[in-house]
């Protein structure tokens, strides 16, 4: 899977070059960062990329543009050797209201095709495309920290369960909304949520009733690992956390992400074998020597100059 | 697995017709509902089926009749298009004391056969039959909410871990009892409990020592998602929860259950592929349009008339 | 896997005989138990084996000797029919400071071989050898309770996640340290930690930032199932817990461990099938009859004389 | 899977009793054996059951009755301890013309349900039911030898790939017909054929073009293991082969079938582990001693009186 | 996997539009078809696309351009609803001499990166990219027939094992060449060849010695399903075969390919479940009715006008 | 699995040193090579190790000593960097008569233990130990060519299916004997034979009837890849084949074996991912450059001096 993604990046590298440069030049602004219309990308600190859902006037609802921009954005980040960690958050009053049904209705409600089989065939393609929008987060080898404030509804839950670390504010709430609009959630929630939190009873209850879950329950069930008083505090915390990750060896950090995901989907003996095969070369990095030396000299990892990856 | 079950239902449909009609006509009563001797089946609300373990004088201990009646009961429910959600609870003072050793001893303690191999062969059949008693709960596509009060011992834990949502009263306690009678739990607890709660250390401790776990620990570890003050409050809560589920599109609800179970047993990429293949037709349901319209008109799902499934 | 291990034990049985006898004769002492230089092995109670990490002056850092002694020690224990449960703890001020980088640097920092491929080949062998050091704990069919006080760093987390039940003191803390020395943890933590606790967000945070986790968070996330005020109380608690396990049928207890591990790595239907095939013979044990009889006579399992296994 | 099946058999044992007795009393006749209308069941030799597709005037086309009678028939055989091996063949001029489209059209061409989702839901049930018709052959622990003469079309290929040993006459031909009627074969051929023969290119060609394959190619690609000059010779050969199998220990024979099927669907290490767990009890059979003794006394297995299984 | 690919196609649809149109307009010519420099794409018959490796002066050696053009070409074909089947062959004297080492040496022999870990990281990306070149053939839902004449060396074997049906001429030979240049074949041969032919001993011999295999052995081991006297006869045969496939319902044909590939990588019960979920909608196609009607009217599938897919 | 093995080798290295030296000093002789009593080990050519089953007077029947000597022998070979390929054959008139029932009867016929559970427990250990005897062949990364003359019975088939390449003489025959002595073959045949040859019908027939298969059928079904007129010709052929393998880069050859085995037990996408992770370091070997250069200079691989592995 990871292999596939990487080749995908490679084969179109020339096509990406222009926008790729654009990304590196981005600065935090009040609106979306071209060529994106729904995302704002900035670099708040060294080696940290901040991706902000940016349709605040629409409560960051996920429209057609969003679904493809996410893929482009994370494909670029995956290849950007300047970036070591990503923070995702939402602009405006809430994280996201989920799918923008008005904009997407054509795809979801009016499948194309001459008969049921052909409509199903096309529908399957569309679903697979939407699944990819969040799977790119997992395939990007850089860790992704997501910071949620206010509402995180429907597609928002699909998005955050594909991220690596989840933070939220006191006023945040989460809702697996799909059952309310007559469908089984099909872009990741049903697949990832049960592997993200430890109570199966709660997962089932959330998915079958679409009830809201507030920040305290999200913390106690393990959906988020930290709750902050407000958005400002959370963003500061997210950046500090991102800074900690960015300071460490990218060989260690990205190898850790790849192997944690591998472990989720394989047995322990298989995952140990994969790990040994992974590290047989990765341990030959200079980063081990540099890190060990820094440790002996009581230096912080932040003082160690690791090569790019 | 699911496919197998369904075919099982279909092929004997004619045989079931009589008892099937009986089920639909059942009313809540003070005793078991014929043709069952250990279960009482009723319909406390529209589209909600209530299955009550009903041998209160024997602390709902699981005798020979129980093991086969559960299969018959849930096989009927799976096919009953009037039913959209199931509530399971226990009559009398406790949920269940577990296996009725006196009644079952013949099966467990006196295996049939001319030599060890043949006794083992027959024993394997018996175990598989007993495993099926709880697997039918999972194979039934309608969500099953279980409400536990008082003791839930041995086979009771096997039963509740096969249900979708677990509730309990303040005075409830749970005990993986099998190790105390010299055997490894073989009808589901060792297989499902680790996938139901998030602490492996706790799972092992419970299964290896047979110690009791009380409601507060059951809540904090995620075995149950809610604790109620007493049985009356719990049953009200269970019915309200069941009502919420029953009000939603059965296409959405039952597709959610089937895909959540699929996700438990497969990798994320495999589960996403299955989900897309599932929804390529299921999204063509009228329920999406009806639900979307209701949402826009600020109506509750309960006001939407979904077709039977 | 289990099969492989067992054959490993068997084929060299004669080689082990001498040290094996030594183990049975061990008494609790102030230092390591010969032939071990880093472990102290004793028998604090009937059927209970206590393995103590014993390099207190070096904070129980894991040196070359440790990595192979653990394999020898647990291989013996696996075959020792007198032993029914194991307790692991650390001598001195802390549980363990993790890998002894000074002693191990040769293996990790100076891979052997004429080119990158050959160095990688040898590195893979070394990693696999180290992985085995903790996998033996899992392959040993007797349950292993680990009791942690003070620090549990790096390799210590790899070790405890391979144990069955985790306890700790109020002052204990845990640190997935590897990312700080430039590498992805490769001897078990990334493979087992996500299957041991219920919050994926927390697992990722710990592994990617190397931050310390204290006992209260370890308890609430399910890493440990109990926290004790101090080491003395914990050791008493660990021995009591071990006593509970040791009192029960070894056929039941060891079958439970083997099937719980099988369940972790397989789907529910596969695990049910394996369980039925396991118990088709194991239920024919005398222990079921003895236990059932004791239960009826209101005797404690501790009064039942089970045969050795 | 196997476990599920067995429990299925067990739970309805009382229902089967009457027809079960009927089966044992069956004699070879010129027509179907009651209560079957499409199958003729007989006992041509000790411990050998012969199941004949018996609608010769309809070229043994598979009508509604056939699909459910096969399940009943093999469910009984699975429980019949007198039977140790099964031979399947077709009455009349050919083995089978496949599905009886006229009789089945209602199921396949007119799915029930109020919308696409509900029609799909019901269609899935129907397909699963039909899949079960051939899966019962695999779940029956007694080996099944199939003898094909003349045409074996469509559903016929689904049927024979679920059998254990395939024989045919010189004039036999095989056709994966489904693509010709606008559908992907969904009751077993696409799942089992690639695991039955060794040339993937041939499998694809047959399934994508619906071309006929004659007996010589069927032999060289390994679909059948023997070709006979005519039906009479083949039936004699099939019965001789069945006699060889029936003469051997049923513990050995049925354990072999179950483990060969397990191996098909699992990795080698997993299958070895399952095998060891299976044989830990099965090797304690008296059949090993009896067989070993017979071997030493140069007796044929046919002279050894094995207990029933 | 399939889901991923499809989404890949979708998300860049606008980028492809120009070249896509180009493809439809292509005619058979003496050279590569723009925008390709190594492939010639034509439409020899209705619904049949012919992809010719076209660097005859270089023995169709696979240079940098080839590896990415294959991905573009098959991505377009996958989306081209006019195309129902693909034929692949080689221009000039042989099918292909395999990788063009001169052109590719930079990628393979000079990995980029500051240390071994970084060079390995980049090398993994490169390998994954090359693997994708042949995986696109599998992900394209239209069946791919490959016709081999003369030599098929190294990368050529990787290519043909990813195709669905393999044909060759009398003078064809095959060579798994990689071991001769010091590496384990890493773009598909070691993964697919064992699942393509039935003799493991032969697979190992070919891969470990790099010996040539000629057409007769290729036929008898099942690598190819037909051998033709010369290239002209083979191309005629390939087109006839392609015509047979193109004439049938694309819903049936492409569903067959997708499910045959699914079966290769899953157990039989899993593949049956997937198949039922697939066909629950696909059987609702008009193609079944059209095909059934044609069959009853004794018409050839070629006379049935199926809608595009 | 591979990881486990390697660690096994490592941890006892000091114990092996003496016998290990012995192995390197071995010369071909008329009897077993100390410290072995059933095996003769020699070095007929550079980098080629010849292991001969050497109890000709007992038809190379597998006695207690054999089962453990095989493990020791292949464990040494796995670590012997002088060895690049292994040839296995049998001394005397036949390859092997299989298990030496007289010598082994104690293990198989008289299980130890106080009750059925304990006897089963010990039996499982014994089976697992015996399985390991042949699994070591697979875990040894050097390819193993086996050359069979005369009879290859029972355990012999278990042995050869764990080898990589199979050769035989015209007079060779093979027999899956276990069913004749009342048991399901449990040390590898049922697990590996179906993945070694392409006809499932034949596998089942052989395993269920214990009939002999002669060399011509063994060749046509793919069990062996070549048949020789007599033993002398076969041994010459085997050594030539071994020489071809030994001449090639050990990095390429051993990586090929490891990945071919991985592919057998995993899906294609998983195996491709593992392969990319394997080769990301292995391609950095000097062997690629040396081999490429030799190829350009038209030199044979035999002239290239590869470093040891």
UniProtKB/TrEMBL annotation, chains A, B, C, D, E, F:
First-listed, main subcellular location of the protein, grouped into a coarse class: other
Subcellular location: Peroxisome
GO cellular component: mitochondrion; peroxisome
SUPFAM superfamilies: ClpP/crotonase
Keyword match Lipid metabolism: yes
GO MF annotation: an example: delta(3,5)-delta(2,4)-dienoyl-CoA isomerase activity
UniProt protein name: Delta(3,5)-Delta(2,4)-dienoyl-CoA isomerase, mitochondrial
Pathways per UniProt: Lipid metabolism; fatty acid beta-oxidation
Domain of life the protein comes from: Eukaryota
GO biological process terms held by the UniProt record: fatty acid metabolic process
One Pfam family it belongs to: ECH_1
Catalytic activity: (3E,5Z)-octadienoyl-CoA = (2E,4E)-octadienoyl-CoA; (3E,5Z,8Z,11Z,14Z)-eicosapentaenoyl-CoA = (2E,4E,8Z,11Z,14Z)-eicosapentaenoyl-CoA
Function comment: Isomerization of 3-trans,5-cis-dienoyl-CoA to 2-trans,4-trans-dienoyl-CoA.
């Amino acid at each position: 899977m990871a292999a596939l993604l990487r080749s995908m990046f490679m084969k179109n590298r020339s096509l990406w070059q222009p926008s790729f440069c654009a990304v590196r030049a981005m600065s935090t602004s009040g609106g979306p960062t071209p060529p994106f219309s729904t995302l704002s990308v900035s670099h708040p600190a060294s080696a940290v990329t901040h991706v902000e859902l940016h349709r605040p006037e629409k409560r960051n609802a996920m429209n057609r543009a969003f679904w493809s921009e996410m893929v482009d954005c994370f494909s670029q980040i995956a290849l950007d050797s300047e970036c070591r960690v990503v923070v995702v958050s939402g602009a405006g009053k809430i994280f996201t209201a989920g799918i923008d049904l008005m904009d997407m209705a054509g795809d979801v409600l009016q499948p194309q095709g001459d008969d049921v089989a052909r409509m199903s065939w096309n529908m399957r393609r569309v679903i697979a495309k939407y699944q990819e929008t969040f799977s790119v987060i997992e395939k990007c080898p850089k860790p992704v920290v997501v910071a949620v404030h206010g509402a995180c509804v429907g597609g928002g839950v699909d998005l955050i369960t594909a991220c690596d670390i989840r933070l939220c504010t006191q006023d945040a709430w989460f809702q697996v909304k799909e059952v309310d609009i007559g469908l089984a959630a099909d872009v990741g929630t049903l697949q990832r949520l049960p592997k993200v939190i430890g109570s199966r009873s709660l997962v089932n209850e959330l998915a079958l009733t679409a009830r809201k879950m507030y920040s305290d329950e999200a913390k106690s069930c393990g959906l988020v690992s930290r709750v902050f008083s407000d958005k400002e505090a959370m963003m500061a915390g997210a950046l500090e956390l991102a800074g900690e990750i960015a300071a460490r060896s990218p060989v260690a950090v990205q190898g850790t992400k790849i192997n944690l995901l591998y472990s989720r989907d394989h047995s322990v003996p298989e995952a140990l074998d994969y790990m040994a095969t992974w590290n047989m070369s990765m341990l030959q990095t200079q980063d081990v020597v540099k890190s060990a030396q820094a440790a002996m000299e009581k230096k912080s990892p932040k003082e160690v100059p690791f090569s790019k990856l």
